[in-house]
Amino acid sequence: MPLHYIYLILAVAAETVGTTALQASQQFTRLVPSLIVVGGYGIAFFLLSLTLRVMPVGIVYAIWSGLGIVFIAVIGLVVFGQRLDLPAILGISMIMAGILVIHLFSGASPH
After folding, report:
1. Residue 69 and residue 58: Cα distance in Å, rounded?
2. Which parts of the chain fold into alpha helices (H)?
3. 32 to each of 16, 37, 57, 78, 90, how far by Cα in Å?
4. Contact at 8 Å (CB) between 62 and 98?
5. Which of 71, 63, 74 is nearest to 100 (CA)?
6. 98 phi and psi, to 5 degrees?
7. d(CA 99, CA 103)
8. Cα–Cα distances in Å, from 67 out to 31, 49, 64, 70?
9. Using CA of residue 78, residue 104, residue 99, residue 5, what is the dihedral sign?
10. How many CA atoms lie within 13 A of 23 on its CB side?
11. What's in the keyword line of the UniProt record (predicted)?
């Protein structure tokens, strides 16, 4: 797997951790989750900057935000008990399909 994809996957993971901690921080009233938010987003943006050396910003952002949405929706369900209705599930499925189209068919995304 190319290094820029590893950076992107790690950026998504760091953003997902940061966003999960954002919910747990209770609007930044809890110190440890608040520090995890700042650290997670800092790491995510640093890794995104490394990815942008090779890939266009629009493609990177589409993949990063799309995967982040999917992962946070799953974490919201499993960790916080936040259920999704059918339209939300269909919308997230379309986001996943869009990521696959970009990755499999776009010439703008280096493979």
Report:
1. 16
2. 3-24, 31-51, 57-80, 86-105
3. 16, 9, 32, 21, 35
4. yes
5. 63
6. -65, -40
7. 6
8. 27, 17, 6, 5
9. positive
10. 14
11. Cell membrane, Membrane, Transmembrane, Transmembrane helix, Transport
- Say which amino acid occupies 30: R
In single-letter form, the type of residue at position 22 comes to L
Distance of CA 44 to the CA centre of its chain: 9
pTM of the full structure = 0.85
Q: By CB neighbour count within 10 A (0-12 exposed, 13-18 middle, 19+ buried), where does 76 fall? A: middle
28-71: per-residue pLDDT in tens?
Answer: 999 999 999 999 999 999 999 999 999 999 899 999 999 999 99
Burial of residue 71 (number of CB atoms within 10 Å: 0-12, 13-18, 19+): middle
